[in-house]
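Design a sequence for this backbone.
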């Protein structure tokens, strides 16, 4: 019976004769024995190949295997408390599918080298676990929006105008015309609140970030919901429910995987037990300065400031009501405090910092045009977006969650690059 490692472990197939297909994870020859640890997509398993238990060709194959050679093994499952997972396979047959060449990744290689061979390093247990966890996290996020009655929409990636300021736009040549890789699908999501009501986009966004940090990518996956008739309070409630839903599902259904990623599930669970704290921008600036930072009113929070704010935080926290001048043109002014906008960032604890940016949108034509003029934006570049306010406009809000930022926090990764298979940064777009 061809099975897989996960099934053997899960169904405790002690004493059963099985066949497995997989790859050599570790390999050691000792006299008349070959000890190997094999891996397949479902786990790792120890196998022993004894010279007198397999045919001559199989014995040769077992000896000639390299790390990452692919093979088929047949044998009997045996309980062995010393083996990882508690079982091992005593081989009765071992056939190389592809011996390949000696694998270029061994121990103690530099981060840069591992990024050079990313296409191979993605086979490591570390990256396997993270990629599985990412898959589940994204699925739970989608599931949340499905349950909440949202439609997923498909925005363009090539656009004519920026959404988040000119400095991080990637320019491209579009048949002789200037165009850009999208920074955010928000404006296109807004189109659909007037027809489908509650929508979301899950697509790449691009930012020509010119600095090297542990939380910036030039290409990242962006989850952007947009909701008709939502004010900023409803917007924040939705963000909180979404984060709690996805994190809660991870903790309930994937605690072993979280542990394998180095994340203690109970620590993660503790972050979603209480309502998320809310602090307005002005109070947050004061707090940063009290904690030893140096920030002036009107500055935006950088990584250092967010780290100070969230280091001791037990859970994600909202920072609300930023000064108008440092925020994007589409954010609605606070009617009670017109120097500020109805917006929020959501900062993840333990120094991870911003994972979400959101706001109520300006939905009146004149107000939007006036703000755009204040910010020296050319209305013609955004005519279609402004037009949305001319025909049956309604109040609406939305937000953007950086998937890799969210994964980085959920799994407590040191660096955002491990939250995505092929990280694009200022000095790398290979492999
Ligand atoms: O705060 P940002 O720039 O907001 C927007 O783009 C809005 N248009 C979103 C919206 O309201 N629909 O980006 C939103 C989120 C950030 O909170 C962060 O999680 C992520 O996108 N993000 C990045 N992630 C990785 N690398 C980068 N360079 C990122 N820039 C933003
Ligand atoms: Mg932001």
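Sequence:
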């Amino acid at each position: 019976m061809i099975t897989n490692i996960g099934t053997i472990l899960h169904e405790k197939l002690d004493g059963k004769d099985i066949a497995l297909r997989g790859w050599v994870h570790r390999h050691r020859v000792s006299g008349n024995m070959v000890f190997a640890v094999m891996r397949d997509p479902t786990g790792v398993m120890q196998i022993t190949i004894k010279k007198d238990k397999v045919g001559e060709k199989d014995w040769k194959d077992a000896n000639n295997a390299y790390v990452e050679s692919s093979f088929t093994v047949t044998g009997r499952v045996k309980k062995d408390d010393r083996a990882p997972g508690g079982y091992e396979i005593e081989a009765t047959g071992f056939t190389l599918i592809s011996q390949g060449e000696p694998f270029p990744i061994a121990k103690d290689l530099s981060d840069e080298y591992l990024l050079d061979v990313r296409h191979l390093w993605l086979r490591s247990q570390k990256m396997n676990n993270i990629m599985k966890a990412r898959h589940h996290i994204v699925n739970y996020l989608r599931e949340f929006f499905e349950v909440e009655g949202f439609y997923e929409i498909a925005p363009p990636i090539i656009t004519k105008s920026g959404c988040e300021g000119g400095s991080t736009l990637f320019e491209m040549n579009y048949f002789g015309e200037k165009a850009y890789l999208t920074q955010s699908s928000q404006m296109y999501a807004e189109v659909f609140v007037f027809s489908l009501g509650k929508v979301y986009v899950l697509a790449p966004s691009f930012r020509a970030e010119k600095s090297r940090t542990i939380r910036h990518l030039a290409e990242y996956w962006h989850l952007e919901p947009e909701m008709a008739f939502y004010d900023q309070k409803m917007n924040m409630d939705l963000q909180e429910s979404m984060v709690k839903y996805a994190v809660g599902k991870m903790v309930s259904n994937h605690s072993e995987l979280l542990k394998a990623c180095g994340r203690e599930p109970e620590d993660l669970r503790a972050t979603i037990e209480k309502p998320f704290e809310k602090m307005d921008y002005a109070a947050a600036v004061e707090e940063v300065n009290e904690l030893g930072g140096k920030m002036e009113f009107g500055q935006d929070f950088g990584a250092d400031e967010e780290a100070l704010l969230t280091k001791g935080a037990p859970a994600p926290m909202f920072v609300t009501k930023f000064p108008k001048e440092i925020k994007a043109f589409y954010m609605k002014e606070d009617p009670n405090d017109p120097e500020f906008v109805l917006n929020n960032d959501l900062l993840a604890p333990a120094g991870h910092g911003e994972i979400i940016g959101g706001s109520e949108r300006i939905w009146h034509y004149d107000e939007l045009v006036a703000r755009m003029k204040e910010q020296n934006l050319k209305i013609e570049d955004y005519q279609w977006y402004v037009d949305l306010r001319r025909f049956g406009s309604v109040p609406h809000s939305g937000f953007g969650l950086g998937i890799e930022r969210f994964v980085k926090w959920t799994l407590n990764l040191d660096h955002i690059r491990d939250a995505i298979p092929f990280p694009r940064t200022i000095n790398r777009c290979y492999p």
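The CA atoms of residues 132 and 268 lie 17 Å apart.
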